[in-house]
Fold this protein.
Amino acid sequence: MPSTTTTPSPPPLRPVTGHRGAKGHAPENTIAGLRKAHELGVVWVEFDVKLTSDGVPVLMHDDTLKRTTDGRGDVATKTLSDIRALDAGRWFSPDFAGERVPTLDEAMEFLAKRGMGANVEIKPCPGRDAETGATVARALAARWMGMALPPFVSSFSAEAVAAARDAAPEIPRGLLAEKFPADWRAQLEALGCATFHLDQRRVTDERVRAAREAGFRVLAYTVNEAARARALLDWGIESVFTDYPERIAAR
Ligand code: G3P
Ligand code: MG
């Protein structure tokens, strides 16, 4: 694995990042969700991206279509055209009927027009880690790094982060972790990550301090209670991912 000599870092974040747009209020990973986040005063949003069978990055969390669309089957076996035919809003509420699964470019265009920023979570379908990381990074590098708030990527998949780094080293990278890995520092350094995105249930004051002292910026997901957000931010978490941005005062 080639190593990187530089570690690009995102612009300063806000204390609140909209999770999958504004997941509590609008169907996740849709333009309607990004619009809702904007209406709530959110500047930075997180969303999940995976590839269609024909290699197009689209906003989607699950490997299968069932939960968040009216389709069935695996995302990895569907073309963009297949996925575009689906309704991605009605499952959430009839008010959102007709909402489509956006492409990465559509989401970025929406955000660019509103001066918003994106944490693009690379969420590979099984076996597509490197392909997804490289494709997403190339797409962002080709069109979106000139935004007022340029995007940064993250993933639970170290392989995807490494592929993003190799495809477009200038894009800031973060590593997501459910557990707090013993070798966190070595992993972050090997991948050239500036940010470390932790499950808020595993975050402690000591862990935040250790990561920050090692030079990393620390984020926490998913925080839907104001008091917990306050504690995390007081410990030095830079931003919390939340489904309900309005619950957390400073955004
Ligand atoms: O990127 C933060 C958070 O979204 C990670 O978990 O499952 O909601 O994508 P998940
Ligand atoms: Mg996510």
Remarks:
- The chain has eight helices and nine strands.
- The domain at 16-49+105-249 is CATH 3.20.20.190 (TIM Barrel).
